[in-house]
Amino acid sequence: MTQADELEPEDDAEAVKAPRRSIFRRQAAPLLPEAGAAGAPLTAVIAVMSFLAVLAMASLLIVNRAASEWTSSLRSEITIQVKGANADEIETGVEAALRILNETEGVIEATEKSRAETAALLEPWLGQGNAEAFLNIPAIIEVKAAPPLRDNLDLLRNRIVAAAPGASLDDHARWHDRLSGAARSGQAMAFGVFLLVMGAACAISIFAARAGLAANHEIVSVLHLVGATDGFIAAEVQRRFFILGLRGALLGLFAALAALLLAGFAVRSSAAADNFLPSLRLGGWMILWLAAAPVATCLVTAVTARLTVLKTLSQQY
User: Fold this and answer.
1) Beta strands per DSSP E along the chain
2) Claim to verify: residue 64 and residue 188 sit in the same structural domain
3) Is residue 13 part of a domain?
4) End-to-end CA distance of the chain, in Å?
5) Which domain holds residue 218?
6) How far is CA 107 from CA 78, 102, 113, 172, in A?
7) pTM assigned to the model
8) How many domains are contained in the chain?
9) What's the rounded Cα separation, in Å, for the pair 306 and 231?
10) Which residue in 171, 175, 180, 174 sits closest to 67, CA to CA?
11) Which of the ends of the chain has fewer CB neighbours closer than 10 A, N or C?
12) Residues 310, 206 share a domain
């Protein structure tokens, strides 16, 4: 057997394997290497941006829902407080106030809180059992009123004060205005943080796209020599940044959802959760809105990279 005969099987095997390696390489390797687009570091940065964007969106939604829950009752209810030197005087005032309320048009419902319920409202400040033991607690009547009556409460206030001198009427207008103003401020702040995160994502994408073009300058030059247009190169960069942005956005979304779930458990286990802190329930619609934040981050990253590449190529070539 000659030397050529001994090498012939190996050459045939290499001839069979070579096309497979070249086909696999064309399918797997991107036109612009991932290292040129910052790769893993860019994915990590986008994940952080997505995490902050989801938290900002969650803050916006939570503040909006909490403000709606807090102010809905204030818009429809008024409170009458009846004071007195002793329990009999308070009871007499309550009966007189209820009689006036039952005779007033526009009063939907009037309910007197029990002494225990009223004392429970003071427990966060005075401690359990102290209010009933040491104080002559005023009576509280909760009234649901129709909008026409709420618009003009002066007549009802004067009638109640005349019938029960120790009574006072509160329409919660001051608290409603304060809560509404605080909610608007919180929503504006959360939306501002969201816009800042999107701006940071744009800046990072611009820097990474320019760095990617610089790292792959030779490849870009060859592409231009073989007739590739700026739009084709920009589309390749956009595709690469979209993939990186999608990875980072999903990582940020999952991390933010985990953080919100942990915060929700912490709030629900807190003793003051029911009285002061808004709920952190993640419903279906809320999750959909939260998912919009990483989607926006991903799209902003990809589109910004495309525009940056088009502008840079138009200046260099």
Assistant:
1) 77-82, 107-112, 139-145, 167-170
2) yes
3) no
4) 60
5) 33-71+180-316
6) 10, 7, 17, 16
7) 0.64
8) 2
9) 9
10) 180
11) N
12) yes
How many residues are there in the chain? Answer: 317
Task: Label residue 131 left, alpha or beta by phi (over 0 means left) and psi (-120 to 50 means alpha).
Answer: alpha
Shared domain check, 271 and 192: yes
Domain co-membership, 60 together with 39: yes
pLDDT tier for residue 1 given thresholds of 50, 70 and 90: very low
**For the segment 109-146, what is each residue's pLDDT rounded down to a tens digit?**
888 888 788 877 777 667 776 666 667 788 888 888 88
Beta-carbon count within 10 A of 9 CB: 9
Read off the pLDDT band of 251 (50, 70, 90): very high
Cβ proximity of 237 and 42 under 8 Å: no
In a domain, 158, yes or no: yes
Q: Are residues 269 and 243 in the same domain?
A: yes
Q: Is 65 exposed, middle or buried (0-12, 13-18, 19+ CB in 10 A)?
A: middle
For residue 36, give the nearest of 301, 247, 244, 310 by alpha carbon. 244
CA atoms within 13 A on the CB side of 47: 15
Rg (CA), the chain: 34
